[in-house]
């Protein structure tokens, strides 16, 4: 047994100030720091429930570790606690959701498929099936000894006394707190019709269920927003054979990532499937009929578009809720953390969409709203919390989308992007069967997007974005196919010694 472990086990009745400022609450105040220890996996091995004495004052028996949230980050964090043997009798999850943590991307993809085309349903997409892991159903949490509080959002935090207050009035004690609250949908104000019956937002299963109820009766659907939500919902509406219009103020789809020429390819495909576009348009208000339900979308130019169902997909806001006092980032929003997801308050961490973290690869602070980051940040944070790991998070931005995947679709679309979309672009290929876009800045390949690639081709993308090899722009431009362009990029990797 190591000297570190013997010391921890010998001080079971004292408080533990674990490396990097993490304080675990317990009855006494003597502290022990292993901040200067070499990385080790034994930092928490001697941890015992006796660190936190039982008390009837608190609703949770498991108060060493508390996770707040019910999405991807919470589920993957729970799995990591289990993998380190620190969940049983130690971990509590509290969520506003009615369900165990699940893979949220399904809500705008498989969940919205027409009812005759095998739509996704719980428990089919509980975490962590999205990455090939075990399906963590409510029974899984029970079997692992993890306390769960559903449909009871946290309303307040007392940092000094390390307690949380929930909507139902419960008091929860924590030693280490993981904030994984994600985002909330940006909404239209009620005064312009944002709360009318038939107007939908999608952030959870209840939202998706409500939308499906509308789609079953709908004839004319208007989707507001040309980003991920807009594209995915419109594709689903096509599957329902509904009159579908997408309205957005930008000049083309997914303007924050797609180039104009790339967006044009996708827009043409949507139009071939009957989707109409109103680009560069702004909305004045949503109008209701005699029964109070939405009937049309009134534009700023005075024209209107009939609609019995409207889906608003105009972005999201970090769900900081009662945690503002933990410390916010005024530039990118969310809760400020370091490379181990520690906030400025010892013992409190934030992961996933809500975390403003150092994006090491590009030397800037970022907040990433994506399932891949939610999974990876949760895992990295918990490993750092439970072990002596000091390696900072080194994330490579990754985005993807899949649309028109339902049975009978004329074509399934799946693209992936890795890296940073800065600099000049080179587009190779057409939409039949695939297309690739390369972003080149100062002669280096910074980002790459591939549509309809093979598994081997998709595996190449993160290597290109991570190593940022120098590439000959003219060679890429003269490539006769996507395959040839990728071969050119692959050769540039070999020049920097990267394994391909």
UniProtKB/TrEMBL annotation:
Arranged from A to Z, the UniProt key words for this protein are: FAD, Flavoprotein, NAD, Oxidoreductase, Redox-active center
Q: What is its EC number?
A: 1.6.5.4
Q: Which residues form the Monodehydroascorbate reductase 3-like C-terminal domain?
A: 396-475
Q: Which cofactor does it need?
A: FAD
Source organism: Cucumis melo
| MF terms in GO | monodehydroascorbate reductase (NADH) activity
Q: Out of the domains of life, which is the source?
A: Eukaryota
Q: What is this protein called?
A: monodehydroascorbate reductase (NADH)
Domain named FAD/NAD(P)-binding: residues:
65-377
> Which InterPro entries does this entry report, sorted A to Z?
FAD-oxidoreductase/Apoptosis, FAD/NAD-bd_sf, FAD/NAD-binding_dom, FAD/NAD-linked_Rdtase_dimer_sf, MDHAR3-like_C
Query: What family classification does the UniProt entry report for this protein?
Result: Belongs to the FAD-dependent oxidoreductase family.
Annotated Gene Ontology cellular component terms: cytoplasm
């Amino acid at each position: 047994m190591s000297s570190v472990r013997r010391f921890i086990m010998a001080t079971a009745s004292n408080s533990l100030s674990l490396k990097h400022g993490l304080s675990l609450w317990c009855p006494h105040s003597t502290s022990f720091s292993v901040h200067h220890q070499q990385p080790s996996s034994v930092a928490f091995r001697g941890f015992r429930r006796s660190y936190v004495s039982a008390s009837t004052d608190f609703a949770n028996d498991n108060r060493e570790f508390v996770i707040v949230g019910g999405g991807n980050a919470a589920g993957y964090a729970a799995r990591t606690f289990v993998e380190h043997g620190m969940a049983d009798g130690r971990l509590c999850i509290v969520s506003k959701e009615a369900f165990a943590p699940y893979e949220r991307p399904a809500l705008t993809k498989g969940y919205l498929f027409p009812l005759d085309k095998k739509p996704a349903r719980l428990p089919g997409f509980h975490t962590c099936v999205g990455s090939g892991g075990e399906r963590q159903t409510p029974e899984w949490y029970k079997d692992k000894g993890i306390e769960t509080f559903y449909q009871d959002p946290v309303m307040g935090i007392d940092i000094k006394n390390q307690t949380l207050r929930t909507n139902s009035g419960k008091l929860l004690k924590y030693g280490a707190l993981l904030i994984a609250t994600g985002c909330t949908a940006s909404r239209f104000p009620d005064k312009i019709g944002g709360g009318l019956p038939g107007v939908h937002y999608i952030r959870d299963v209840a939202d998706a269920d409500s939308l499906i109820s509308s789609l079953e009766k709908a004839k004319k659907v208007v989707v507001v927003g040309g980003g991920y939500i807009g594209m995915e919902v419109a594709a689903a509406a096509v599957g329902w054979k509904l009159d579908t219009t997408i309205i957005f103020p930008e000049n083309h789809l997914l303007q924050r990532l797609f180039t104009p020429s790339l967006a044009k390819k996708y827009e043409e495909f949507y139009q071939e499937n009957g989707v109409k576009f109103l680009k560069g348009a702004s909305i004045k208000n949503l109008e209701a009929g005699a029964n109070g339900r939405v009937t049309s979308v009134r534009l700023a130019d005075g024209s209107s578009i009939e609609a019995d169902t409207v889906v608003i997909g105009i972005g999201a806001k970090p769900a900081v809720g009662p945690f503002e006092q933990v410390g916010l980032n005024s530039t990118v929003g969310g809760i400020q953390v370091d490379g181990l997801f520690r906030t400025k308050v010892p013992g409190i961490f934030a992961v996933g969409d809500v975390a403003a973290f150092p994006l090491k690869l590009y030397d800037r602070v970022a907040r990433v709203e994506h399932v891949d980051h939610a999974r990876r940040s949760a895992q990295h944070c918990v490993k750092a919390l439970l072990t002596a790991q000091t390696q900072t998070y080194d994330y490579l931005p990754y985005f993807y989308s899949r649309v028109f995947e339902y049975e009978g679709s004329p074509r399934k679309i799946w693209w992936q992007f890795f890296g940073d979309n800065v600099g000049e672009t080179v587009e190779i290929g057409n939409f039949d069967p695939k297309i690739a876009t390369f972003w080149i800045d100062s002669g280096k390949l910074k980002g790459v997007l591939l549509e309809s690639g093979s598994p081997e081709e998709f595996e190449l993308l993160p290597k290109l974005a991570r190593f940022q090899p120098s590439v000959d722009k003219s060679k890429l431009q003269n490539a006769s196919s996507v395959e040839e362009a990728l071969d050119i990029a692959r050769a540039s990797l070999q020049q920097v010694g990267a394994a391909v």
